[in-house]
Amino acid sequence: MNQCKVMKDGYLEKRSNGLLQLWKKKRCVLSEDGLRLYDCKGESSKEMRFEQMTTLDCVEYKRGLVYFTIVMNGGKEIDFRCQQEGTAWNAEIALALVRFKNHVAVQTGRNRHLSHLGSCGEGDVEL
């Protein structure tokens, strides 16, 4: 996610995978390519690229918090929560994911069209 435009920077809480499933505060940076999570000290990070995400699900609002789940390719679910103020993280991530998937679909369609033109010989010039 280097050199990508930062769309949102702030804090989310991520539910741990451990037995107790504790909520851990993470600094998060949303960019055009995905979401990067930093530990509290900012020393280590985890990258969640949009190409690895399937969807954003399970949005709930409880006691001033927004709870949501990011579903990764392969079905892995990662739970988050944040304060319910302003434009919530879930909305920003969902919109960025849709933009990314639309861009990929347009590129795929364009590549198929160009490939089809090349195989039909329409791009050939006869002298």
From TrEMBL:
Its main location: cytoplasm. GO terms for molecular function: phosphatidylinositol phosphate binding. One of its GO terms (cellular component) is cytoplasm. InterPro entries: PH-like_dom_sf, PH_domain, PHLA1/2/3. It is found in: Cytoplasm; Membrane. It is a peripheral membrane protein. It comes from Anabarilius grahami. Keywords: Cytoplasm, Membrane. The keyword Transmembrane helix does not apply. This is Pleckstrin homology-like domain family A member 3. Residues 6-100 form the PH domain. One of its GO terms (biological process) is positive regulation of apoptotic process.
